[in-house]
Design goal:
- The structure is a single chain.
- The protein has 155 residues and is an alpha+beta fold.
- The protein has helices at residues 44-62, 75-84, 98-103, 144-154, and strands at residues 14-17, 22-24, 32-37, 65-71, 90-93, 106-111, 114-119, 123-126, 132-136.
- A seven-stranded mixed sheet has the order 2-1-5-4-3-8-9, with helices on one face. Strands 6-7 form a two-stranded antiparallel ribbon.
- A hairpin with a 4-residue loop joins β1 and β2.
- α1 (44-62) packs parallel to α4.
- The longest helix is centred in the middle third of the chain and has 19 residues, at 44-62.
Length: 155
């Protein structure tokens, strides 16, 4: 796994959102974008992380940050997640994990003695010019939104 680093250009991508509409990173040129990768919709950790971002969205909006959540779930599953948890930001479907691979967040994982390939919970703050400004790798799901906000406030 070769995760992108601060100063790297974010790969251009287009994926289907929870409404089955195509969303591209270039749609947000001139804005900061938080691209956060999560393993699976409607699981406890991913729900905690998403709800934290949902609740912090107004503060992130003030900092000019757009939130894009990416997982290997189908658009239909993302729609269920967004509706059930009243998520107020865009979720993107990376079913073939091509975008996850481009960002370097797809790789070997271990859980309860099993080894498998999957998404690592990593977030990227991309600046207005498409350059990775910050990479968030160490956080608890319930604190992810606060880690991002703390970074933005220090700037």
């Amino acid at each position: 796994m070769n995760t992108l680093k601060i100063g790297d250009f974010a790969p251009h991508f287009s994926l289907s959102n929870q409404h089955n509409e195509t969303v591209s990173l270039t749609d947000f040129q001139g804005k900061k974008v938080l691209v956060y990768f999560y393993p699976k919709a409607l699981t406890p950790g991913c729900t905690t992380q998403a709800c934290g971002l949902r609740d912090a969205k107004a503060e992130l909006d003030k900092s000019g940050v757009v939130i894009l959540g990416i997982s290997p779930d189908s658009p239909k599953k993302l729609a269920q997640f967004a509706e059930k948890k009243e998520l107020n930001f865009t979720l993107l479907s990376d079913e073939n994990h091509q975008v996850a691979e481009q960002f370097g967040v797809w790789g070997e994982k271990k859980f309860m003695g099993k080894i498998y390939d999957g998404i690592h919970r990593i977030s990227f703050l991309i600046d207005e010019k498409g350059v990775i400004e910050q990479v968030f790798t160490k956080f608890k799901t319930g604190e992810h939104h606060q880690v991002v906000l703390d970074y933005l406030l220090k700037k």
